[in-house]
Amino acid sequence: MRSRALLLTLLMVLTLCALVAPAYAGSDAQVIDENPALTARLQAIVDDPVYTLPGLVVLTMQGGEVTYTGNLGYSYIDNDDPANNVPVDEYSMFRIASISKLVAAVGIMQQVEAGTIDLDADVSDYLGFTLRNPHFPDVPITCRHLMSHTSSIRDGSTYSLPLDVPLSAAFFPPSDYYTGARWESAHPTIDKSPGKYFTYANLNYGVLATVLERVTGELFATYMNDHVLDPMGIEGGYVPALFGQWEIENVGVLYRQEDGAWAPQVDDYQGVIPDPPAGFDVYVPGFNATWQSPQGGLRISTWDLAKVMKMFIGQGTYRGTQILEPETVELMFTPYWTYDPALENGDTYYDLMLSYGLGPHIMTNTAGDRILADRDIFMNGHLGEAYGLWSGFMFDDETGDGFIYYITGRWGPAEFGEYSTFYLTEERVMTALFEEQLLPVADWSGMLPPVKADGSSVFKVGRAVPLRFQLFDECGDPVAGLTPILSLAKLCGDEWGEEFKPRSKTPPKTSDVFRYRAGTYVYNLDTKGLTAGTYRARIAIGAGAQLYAEFSLR
């Protein structure tokens, strides 16, 4: 741990840097708009006479590369003189709400890799005070519990404490920041102890950010810039008082509609860098990091947030810079908690949150967490909601497809969607992104001969099995240009075994990608080395959508 004197010196330097506000070179963002049909459809959502939006920013990724950016509406609105409105553009940064947690989790996991944080150690060992749910006094709370929202901590009336108030004040009476609602209570039939029961709580990430400060001796916000954002060339951050002039000029305002006008809710800076909060110059990292809003305060553009998506798709590496180890990314996106109706082991937030990893929200498509109405889309990431904003960050690491959206204000009481417990506007945006860009596939032919569509085909082990199918759009025209990916699983008793990668009879033999030939996607499966039995082919056609086919070997 660094000495107090050194920390004070460093923090005074940070304060001076913030006050001087050096100019930034700016973002490397680009405009990629080669889909006028999608742009028109999104503009219609923004202009809806009932559900009008102040701004909408979207981005799609396919095969690990950005394929579309949409910047609609305004980042600043002058209700008295619309001539002063500032349009959203590719540089616009917004406070993205709870997607911030997923980015903060990257910083936490870096310290797990460094050995300074043990996911399963009692978090009290890092905080300097004993953190226990009084209803479960013998059960330690760990960083794994905090990251997965199974800690039994609850937000209560507040989850952000002033800079000069210790974090412990949130957990012990008497304190203006303590409430009996801070803790999950015991239940006669449901195990609600730490690690067993899920309830989404923002304060979990305030505690984690404080732990990060304790083990590094660095301010959470500056650690995240130095070790996570800057190495990927990302502008913005968690504390606007530390921004440069270029950054603050590109921070957009979040709105709610009040009496027919757009009322600013947060970040109405109008190009002026805010002063650091009182007491910043004497703040010691590890005292209480909640004031930096690790749970929801990241300001970032969709273009720069896409770099985080690329890093995850790249198994922890972005353009040759390693941010995390591949094993760490896999651990983060492996479900730690999944809802079990028999156990009633969590608050599912209207069936929207049904599985969660160490930072990521895992989509199951089983209830309210459906991305599309008529197709299962298997993507993971995070959602956000705060100050009128709705945001989404979802991707499929197998195909490299994904999307980001910021809906920068709301009209009033929110309505749930027609087929999910996303909000109605979110449903409309996601449906437009998939139907117009991410998944232009409305139907498929089923497996073509020699593989029968009903799964009754039997082939001899060692011979090639031609897997063939066609894809069609809504007009019935063939869809070309996709790169469907094949994986196999063998039936073991009544259950499918673990998936494995196939081997092709045609070069490159290690490939798992279908080739497009004369209107048909083809994969010549090499069955040498496989054993007799029934197999299931899973074909990922992009954007998280899956096709399935069965056949047998003898």
Textual characterization of the structure:
By secondary structure, the protein is of the alpha+beta class. The protein has 2 domains: 4-111 and 210-328 and 379-438, DD-peptidase/beta-lactamase superfamily (Beta-lactamase, 3-Layer(aba) Sandwich), CATH 3.40.710; 443-553, Macroglobulin (MG2) domain (Immunoglobulin-like, Sandwich). Helix content is 21%, strand content 22%. The protein contains 11 helices and 26 strands. The chain has helices at residues 4-20, 36-46, 99-114, 124-127, 143-147, 203-216, 220-229, 245-249, 302-313, 326-332, 424-438; strands at residues 55-62, 65-76, 86-87, 94-95, 254-258, 261-266, 299-300, 317-318, 321-322, 337-338, 355-356, 361-362, 380-386, 389-396, 401-407, 409-410, 443-444, 458-459, 464-469, 471-472, 485-492, 495-496, 515-517, 520-526, 533-542, 545-553. The strands form 8 sheets. The chain has a 7-stranded antiparallel β-sheet with strand order 3-2-1-15-14-13-12, with helices on both faces. Strand 23 and strand 24 (520-526) form a beta hairpin. It is globular, with a radius of gyration of 25 Å. 46% of the residues are buried. The model is unreliable at 1-24 (pLDDT under 50).
